[in-house]
Amino acid sequence: MEAKTEKLVIIGSGPAGLTAAIYGCRADLEPLVYMGTKYGGQLMLTSEVENFPGFPDPVLGPDLISKMKSQAERLGARLVQEDVVRVDFKKYPFEVYTGSGVTRALAVILATGANPRRLNMQSEMRLMGKGVSNCAVCDGFFFRGKKVAVVGGGDTAMEEATFLTKFASAVQVIHRRGELRASAALKKEAMANPKISFIWDSAVTEVLGDGRVQGARVKNLKTGAEKDVSLDGLFVAIGYDPNTEIFRGQVELDPKGYIAVRNGTESSVPGVFVAGDVHDFRYRQAITAAADGCKALLDAEKFVKQKLEVELVS
Ligand code: NAP
Known about the structure:
Bound molecules: NADP nicotinamide-adenine-dinucleotide phosphate
Radius of gyration: 21 Å
């Protein structure tokens, strides 16, 4: 017997996917959420979150996800801890494949997020949330009067460095080349800021510190010389990789691999909607991802309603 067609499948379980699930239950779409085996997204690697409204005291990133999950489950969402391995959006109903089989759906929301690129050092991961961060807007506040460094030379690195000068006493940008990749405006703003200095042609080879960041070992890539820089925080801003590999060839991606959206949350395929960091490289906040999840759901709801009305008439 063929399995029933779901009204809505959501792929992803960060704030975008879980908010879509919460709204989806209230819209009677009985959402099925493929959370991924490593569910929760970037918040699972975040320590204290102080800027999510409704939490007057800081909430730990994993606790925030756990609360969103519980809320979605209480409302009736089916949360499945499986990875989607393939999709076929050329067929309708759409097909979503996991290790345990295929699910058909009238509408799909893609909310698989993006992963910040890492320096790929053990010390970076050990001190993640203990002075190493990927988000100045989230964590900058904790570095009032402290010395920090930003790794990277793109727009994100310049924005983060400039933002951090609101709190930190000094911000050093460590960039692997002698020239910034960032756009002219962001570059100019950072270079004119008296709190920001640059360490050119250099890479971080080790994050230093036991329980918390105390510095970084920095290697000049031209001379090979290494020096230890004393720091309280290290912001890694070397770009993001959107989780879109399984959607390649199915929906339109932009040149950087993010899903291209139109009219708010629509992908290039009618009935496939998009929410959160998988398309949004600009804001990348838990709250903006959550808002996006809500918008994608409201658009998906209209789409599904129309499909069901057509089915009733025919
Ligand atoms: P990006 O443009 O890819 O820049 C990444 C930077 O990190 C580059 O300077 C790169 O060095 C460096 N890098 C990459 N891998 C590294 C490694 N393993 N070790 C050390 N350094 C490394 O990423 P992004 O700055 O996050 O920007 C992503 C996109 O979002 C861009 O299109 C950007 O324009 C956009 N964005 C726009 C705004 C805005 O308009 N306000 C703000 C943020 C982002 P190289 O230069 O040597 O390659």
